[in-house]
Design a protein that fits this description.
The chain has 14 helices and twelve strands. With 471 residues, the chain is α+β, with helices and mostly antiparallel strands. The protein binds flavin-adenine dinucleotide. The site of flavin-adenine dinucleotide has 20 residues, from strand 3 and helix 6.
């Protein structure tokens, strides 16, 4: 194992099969008991990230498989450690373990990762060792899966952040068109595109989402740390509860919004952004997969609505909204952000009310309402969380900004504007306040209407016949 920690050997996660994608329980890979307690593994896994390469002398595959005779579905799945090359008792490498690469998937992005189809036991000689107990495969794999989901959300954040930074830089360099206020003056000097209102709007949309997603990801990291140092079982359960509730949101919301951020960055570049001399086309291609792997965002949303909201009888959700309410109360006192905090309050109340509506719909037998709208709920929930983190952060920024203004004797609006250009701290803090205000008006104002739309229980996607999907 230390060779994996040291990076000497690589590893994978082998869940997906041609007929078992989102439905992992449909796995056909089998494990046959051997007299020495080990297992013979037979089956095909596809889309395996870094499934085969020659960067390391060995690759260790955790493989989901069903021990012969075990029940169908996820409950009957176990997990096995299957090395590409067998390991001798003294730790040295032995013979090949009958793990063969059936092919490499040719992909839109992430070209640095060899995504492979792996055939286990084509020659009946693939040996695996059981990891954990029999039929505990899903529980064990989920330890990796949850971390990978958070990692996928972080992948989104990283791509979005890089795309945004490049777009800002480009917009300060690219000269095109006159200042809108110059009208048709033939003598007006062309300006850099950051001077155009529509470019500013795009940059602000990207900035606010990147900052909000970053805060959300940091909060999840904070929850992990706090759960590890918690002094009581109850405290630990509360921090872990936030994690359980937010993992799918971090995965789905951050990867989806990141894709839009990368696409918007390309729009800022214009045609140059579409060309591979500039970095954003790669970010856009690389980012798309984050919305699909580790469970598609549709499936994440179903998990959020079908499982996470109700965990611990809804206590995780109530605790989280309790924290949001506490911050709202505090932030309402803040003169700079009072109006925007009121928008957050309305959005957060509407979101919480919608969860109650889902419960009532479920009790009344209308399960399809929350199922059909799970993705829309995930977006709303993500917007409320991101809005909350932005406004919370803006509250801190506003206080810091005040202190900078006082220290630098910037006591008029004009002097403050000048300082926001000349002083790096004033620029940063004023930017944080501005992006929180923008997000509140741009995204949070729409939350209540979106919740009301869901409550209208529009079922046309379900009621229409398959045939009517023709254009
Ligand atoms: C580049 C890349 C790397 C990957 N890396 C790995 C890896 O390392 N290990 C690994 O095991 N897998 C990996 N995967 C596989 C990935 O996790 C799956 O592609 C993904 O889970 C979706 O499965 P699928 O492609 O079979 O799509 P399907 O399951 O066929 O889904 C197709 C569509 O139907 C929807 N859908 C399916 N079932 C339902 C349902 N019950 N309710 C609502 N909607 C549903 C899905 O959301 C999706 O939109 C990788 C895939 C790619 C492309």
């Amino acid at each position: 194992m230390y060779k994996m920690y040291a990076g000497e050997w690589a590893g994978t996660m082998c869940l997906t099969e041609p007929n078992a994608g989102s439905d992992v329980g449909a796995t056909k890979t089998t494990a046959k008991r051997l007299p020495d307690g080990k297992f013979l593994i037979t089956g095909t896994k596809c889309f395996i990230s870094s499934g085969d390469h020659d960067l390391t002398p060995n690759i260790v595959h955790p493989v989901l498989a069903r021990i012969e005779g075990d029940p169908p579905g996820t409950k009957g799945i176990s997990i096995f450690i299957v090395p590409k090359v067998r390991v001798n008792d003294d730790g040295s490498l032995g013979e090949a373990n009958d793990v063969n690469t059936g092919g490499i998937e040719h992909k839109m992005g992430i070209k640095g990762s060899a995504t492979a189809t792996l055939n286990f036991g084509e020659n009946g000689k693939c040996i695996g060792e059981l990891l954990g107990g029999e039929r505990e495969g899903m529980k064990i794999m989920f330890q990796m899966m949850n971390e990978a989901r958070l990692g996928t959300g972080m992948q989104g954040l990283a791509a979005a952040s890089a795309a945004y930074e490049h777009a800002v830089q480009y917009s300060k360099e690219r000269v095109q068109g006159n200042d809108i206020m110059a009208g048709k003056d033939p003598n007006a000097k062309p300006v850099t595109i950051i001077n155009h209102p529509d470019i500013r709007r795009k940059l602000m949309w990207m900035k606010s989402h990147v900052e909000g997603m970053r805060s959300m990801c940091y909060f999840v990291g904070y929850c992990m740390d706090k759960s590890k140092v918690a002094k009581t079982e109850e405290e630990k359960a509360n921090w872990e509860g936030f994690l359980d509730l937010m993992t799918t949101v971090v995965k789905a919301y951050c990867s989806d919004k990141a894709l839009l951020v990368c696409s918007t960055a390309m729009d800022v570049y214009g045609g140059y952004g579409y060309c591979s001399e500039y970095p954003v086309e790669q970010y856009l291609r690389d980012e798309k997969i984050a919305t699909i792997y580790e469970g598609t965002n549709g499936i994440q949303s179903l998990t959020l609505v079908g499982r996470s909201l109700g965990q611990r009888k809804g206590m995780n959700l109530m605790n989280l909204f309790g924290e949001i309410q506490k911050n709202i109360k505090k932030m309402k006192e803040q003169k700079e952000l009072g109006k925007h905090t009121a928008i957050l309050e309305e959005a957060s109340n509407a979101c919480l009310e919608l969860t109650m509506f889902f419960v009532q719909a479920g009790k009344a037998g209308n399960f399809m309402l929350p199922i059909l709208n799970a993705y829309k709920f995930m977006e709303i929930f993500g917007d409320v969380l991101v809005g909350h983190f932005l406004i919370d952060g803006a509250g801190v920024a506003a206080e810091k900004l005040d202190a900078v203004y006082k220290a630098k004797k910037a006591d008029t609006a004009e002097k403050q504007k000048e300082l926001n250009k000349a002083d790096i701290e004033a620029a940063f803090y004023s930017g944080r306040v501005a992006s929180a205000k923008f997000f509140a008006v741009e995204s949070l104002t729409t939350v209540k209407a979106r919740c009301e739309a869901i409550k209208m229980d529009e079922k046309s996607p379900l009621e229409m016949t398959e045939e009517a999907f023709a254009v």
